[in-house]
Amino acid sequence: MATSRYEPVAEIGVGAYGTVYKALPNGGGAGGGLPISAVREVALLRRQEAFEHPNVTKVTLVFEHVDQDLRTYLDKAPPPGLPVETIKDLMRQFPRGLDFLHANCIVHRDLKPENILVTSGGTVKLANFGLTRIYSYQMALTPVVVTLRYRAPEVLLQSTYATPVDMWSVGCIFAEMFRRKPVFRGNSEADQLGKIFDLIPEDDWPRDVSLPRGAFPRGPRPVQSVDPELEESGAQLLLEMLSFNPHKRISAFRVLQHPYLHKAEGDAE
């Protein structure tokens, strides 16, 4: 899509893979996000270090524009935070988008509140696909992905990984919607693992890592300590998303079927 069809009106931000502008179509109409992107988005050229060259066509991606992300949405919520039913509504939406990606063999690899958009009507949109990859289970993927506080144990331990890394991030975001702050607030990879073990009991220690289990503390707190409003079925859903073993971690499809998301507040457990 030619950039001549759009008129940039404001710079929204600069990321690792390009600059994002708010733009309006020439001749009027709804605005969109206009990433002036790198050739990294083109599979055949993405190993190329230079993002621009006079003899290489630039790639421009045009997205719909959404005014706020989930981080802003949470920050704007009055004390004591989002109502439980609003959290459930959000949790019925962005895992649906994630299930679509995973069904098409796509792993997002950078889910966090800043990369989940919320429209004025409350519709959730997944965004920022700069680290997204089409994968197979035999494919080697880089270990330095996902913002630290949303990073799954298998990535922290530099083990193999696939779509379950996204589900760990969903669990972290789910807890954060109750707490209004990250559930694991480590300052380094080792510290992050320590914070995880403080809350989550590991099932199986991975075989393909060099660190022994004894290098980290034991004795997790009850997962209900995340927030007193997190009822038993919600705590169970959280534990299924934050399963240490990625093979036992709940999928996005199964999250959408979970009873917690379909039980009205106040119903008996």
TrEMBL record:
<keyword id="KW-0418">Kinase</keyword>
<feature type="domain" description="Protein kinase">
    <location>
        <begin position="6"/>
        <end position="261"/>
    </location>
</feature>
<keyword id="KW-0131">Cell cycle</keyword>
<dbReference type="InterPro" id="IPR008271">
    <property type="entry name" value="Ser/Thr_kinase_AS"/>
</dbReference>
<dbReference type="GO" id="GO:0005737">
    <property type="term" value="C:cytoplasm"/>
</dbReference>
<keyword id="KW-0808">Transferase</keyword>
<dbReference type="GO" id="GO:0030332">
    <property type="term" value="F:cyclin binding"/>
</dbReference>
<dbReference type="InterPro" id="IPR000719">
    <property type="entry name" value="Prot_kinase_dom"/>
</dbReference>
<dbReference type="Pfam" id="PF00069">
    <property type="entry name" value="Pkinase"/>
</dbReference>
<dbReference type="GO" id="GO:0010389">
    <property type="term" value="P:regulation of G2/M transition of mitotic cell cycle"/>
</dbReference>
<dbReference type="GO" id="GO:0005634">
    <property type="term" value="C:nucleus"/>
</dbReference>
<dbReference type="GO" id="GO:0007165">
    <property type="term" value="P:signal transduction"/>
</dbReference>
<dbReference type="GO" id="GO:0005524">
    <property type="term" value="F:ATP binding"/>
</dbReference>
<dbReference type="InterPro" id="IPR050108">
    <property type="entry name" value="CDK"/>
</dbReference>
<dbReference type="GO" id="GO:0000307">
    <property type="term" value="C:cyclin-dependent protein kinase holoenzyme complex"/>
</dbReference>
<keyword id="KW-0067">ATP-binding</keyword>
<keyword id="KW-0963">Cytoplasm</keyword>
<dbReference type="GO" id="GO:0004693">
    <property type="term" value="F:cyclin-dependent protein serine/threonine kinase activity"/>
</dbReference>
<keyword id="KW-0723">Serine/threonine-protein kinase</keyword>
<keyword id="KW-0132">Cell division</keyword>
<dbReference type="InterPro" id="IPR011009">
    <property type="entry name" value="Kinase-like_dom_sf"/>
</dbReference>
<protein>
    <recommendedName>
        <fullName>Cyclin-dependent kinase 4</fullName>
        <ecNumber>2.7.11.22</ecNumber>
    </recommendedName>
</protein>
<keyword id="KW-0547">Nucleotide-binding</keyword>
<dbReference type="GO" id="GO:0000082">
    <property type="term" value="P:G1/S transition of mitotic cell cycle"/>
</dbReference>
<dbReference type="GO" id="GO:0010468">
    <property type="term" value="P:regulation of gene expression"/>
</dbReference>
<dbReference type="GO" id="GO:0051301">
    <property type="term" value="P:cell division"/>
</dbReference>
<keyword id="KW-0597">Phosphoprotein</keyword>
<comment type="similarity">
    <text>Belongs to the protein kinase superfamily. CMGC Ser/Thr protein kinase family. CDC2/CDKX subfamily.</text>
</comment>
